[in-house]
Amino acid sequence: EVGETDYDLIIIGSGPGGYVCALRAAQLGLKVACVEKRATLGGTCLNIGCIPSKALLQSSENFHEAATGFAAHGIIIGEVKLDLARMHARKAEVVGANVKGVEFLFKKNGVTWLKGAGRISAANTVEVSGEGGAKSFRAKSIVIATGSDSISLPGLAIDEKQIVSSTGALELESVPKHLVVIGGGVIGLELGSVWMRLGAKVTVIEYLDRLVPGIDGEVAKAFERVLSKQGMKFKLGHKVIKVETSDAGAVVTVEKAKGGTSETIEADIVLVAVGRRAVTDGLGLAEIGVALDEKGRVKTDGHYATSVAGIYAIGDVIDGPMLAHKAEDEGVALAEMLVGQAGHVNYGVIPAVIYTWPEVAGIGRIEEDLKAEGVDYKVGKFPFSANGRARAMNSTDGFVKILADRKTDRLLGAHILGPDAGTLIAELATAMEFGASAEDVARICHAHPTLNEAVKEAALATEGRALHV
Ligand code: FAD
Predict the structure, then answer these.
(1) Which residues 6+ apart lie within 8 Å of 414 measured at CB?
(2) Confidence label for 1 from pLDDT (cuts 50, 70 and 90)
(3) What per-residue confidence (pLDDT) applies to 358?
(4) Of all protein residues, whose CA lies closest to atom 41 belonging to ligand 1?
(5) If you take atom 46 of ligand 1, which residue's CA is the nearest one?
(6) Which of 45, 171, 269, 435 could be joined to 50 by an S-S link, Cβ 3.0–4.6 Å?
(7) Can you name one GO molecular function term for this protein (predicted)?
(8) Are 342 and 336 in contact (CB under 8 A)?
(9) Can you count the helices (H) and strands (E) in the chain?
């Protein structure tokens, strides 16, 4: 039995959920520790997720532009060569700067990093197993922020060499001749884009008849066309039966999702990107009575409280979109609630972005859902082909789509396929957070020439009065 309370708050996991919760709680005057078993802080996102993938997306886009895009601007260079080792080294530098940044912020804010694997061993007690053995610490509150892990298909073993998860796909030592991606979701398409730009043939196999379930269907269809134009191959409505590996490579057997004859596809590398699951193993949750939901996530009450008093959970380990900024905002909200403030996350206004080029970004409701619910809505669309800045950038694929309530004009959702869509969506996030109407957005003076003018025009288009089409 351990003595007095060591901390006000112990957080297990230092991903965007955990580390941001730690920083906010420390700002608010709590004595905070964060348990992390990985050698560096920052979780999936900083180490093997958002940050290394964006580093490779940027590098591969630069390579691809130099090889295929510069000539159109009148820039003639010699043969463009790839130094993949340097590209990976730069990615590691970017990751290193970010994870060290979190360590610096912990020190600056007086947050203690308890190194090792955490387990809730008794009420208000976390046992940390690290290099020096196991040690227990007491806390008034405990937060589970253990995140998520990639999953595979039944019978498909990930070896991180020929059959890789996103983690292996971020580390390939050479450009595969043929990369087969299982799963047409965000991670599969981003990493597929990376290797396609560096020269791989990429084939995406998706069980459903469309890409990225959950995003607006019209945008998904246009996105599929754009990626096809770039050279990505799709086998939609197909399921993987088996993957066999040998020294010669991998053979993927697929079949139509509805059944039928099977066919085989040869690949050097197979990326399995079929989803992620909450990490709850080894935490002692069953023993202490923390309930999980039907998908194996920690069950919370809407205020991040679990079924056990004093234990909370945030981020990928609970329900909701598995996104870093969602985890961060939950971390802030929970820290504020723990000191009696009114922490809050507006789940209706969380942007989701796919960092391909062009990018895809969406926020709020999708058209299918509004239709299904019988909401009286209107649509405004504006293509980037009619936007001066997009033309100047030579990046005219895509459009802005705005959904607004027909009677009140209130913004209900916004979806963008286009250059820098992930940045553009922030304007609409701000507008929606303030309960804006489409007309509010349309009347704001937008600088010319900017990509954001396409947002203004789409808002005007909800009333059929876009100016530049
Ligand atoms: P995590 O980041 O998963 O962190 C959990 C941490 O807890 C880990 O470091 C783990 O080691 C630690 N931990 C687990 N159990 C224990 C234990 N018992 N003791 C001690 N420590 C423990 N999201 C975006 O918003 N934008 C993106 O661009 C994006 N890109 C992605 C790309 C890839 C390839 C992947 C895989 C994910 C991406 N995501 C992206 C998702 C994003 O990474 C997650 O939503 C986010 O990391 C969730 O944060 P978290 O704090 O809940 O958990």
Answers:
(1) 362, 363, 364, 400, 401, 402, 403, 425, 428, 432, 455, 458
(2) very low
(3) 98
(4) 323
(5) 324
(6) 45
(7) flavin adenine dinucleotide binding
(8) yes
(9) 14, 22
Query: Is the Cβ–Cβ distance between 251 and 264 less than 8 Å?
Result: yes
Tokens matching residue 386: 């009619």
* Strand 163-164 relative to strand 148-150, pairing: unpaired
Per-residue pLDDT at 199 exceeds 60: yes
- Where helices occur in 289-366 by DSSP H, the ranges are 324-338
Neighbours of 80 (CB within 10 A): 13
3-state secondary structure of 262: strand
What positions carry a catalytic annotation? 448
Give how far Cα 289 sits from Cα of 11, 120, 283, 309, 361, Å.
18, 11, 11, 10, 39
Residue 3: the pLDDT is 47
Helical (H) or strand (E) element with 102: helix 84-109
Residue 445: HSE in the Cβ half-sphere, 13 Å Cα cutoff: 0
Alpha helices, H only, 150-284 = 166-169, 186-197, 217-230
**What is the rounded average pLDDT of the residues 229-239?**
97
Chain length of the chain: 469
CA of 102 to the centre of ligand 1 (A): 14
The rounded distance, in Å, linking the Cα atoms of 393 and 386 is 12
- CA-angle at 420, arms to 419 and 421, nearest 5°: 90
Residue 177 has pLDDT above 50, yes or no: yes
* % of the chain with per-residue pLDDT over 70: 99
- DSSP H or E segment with residue 399: strand 399-405
Give residue-wise pLDDT tens across range 384-404.
999 999 999 999 999 999 999
Please report the pLDDT score of residue 315 as a whole number: 98
CA dihedral for 387, 390, 391, 392, sign (positive or negative):
positive
Quick check: bond before 383 cis, omega within 30?
Answer: no
SS3 assignment, position 330: helix
d(C-alpha 252, C-alpha 377), whole Å:
44
Strand partners, 182: 205, 272
Q: Which residues line ligand 1 (CB under 6 A)?
A: 12-18, 35-38, 43-45, 49-50, 53, 117-118, 145-148, 166, 187, 279, 282-283, 315-317, 322-325, 327, 355
Distance 67 CA to ligand 1 centre (A): 34
Q: pLDDT tens digits for 340-387?
A: 999 999 999 999 999 999 999 999 999 999 999 999 999 999 999 999
Q: What's the CA gap between 325 and 329, in Å, rounded?
A: 6
Helix (H, G, I), strand (E, B) or coil at 294: coil
Q: Which helix (H) or strand (E) holds 113?
A: strand 112-115
Q: What is the ipTM of this complex?
A: 0.99
End-to-end, the C-alpha distance of the chain in Å comes to 72
DSSP string, 408-462: T-BEEEEEEEETTHHHHHHHHHHHHHTT-BHHHHHHSPPPTT-TTHHHHHHHHHT
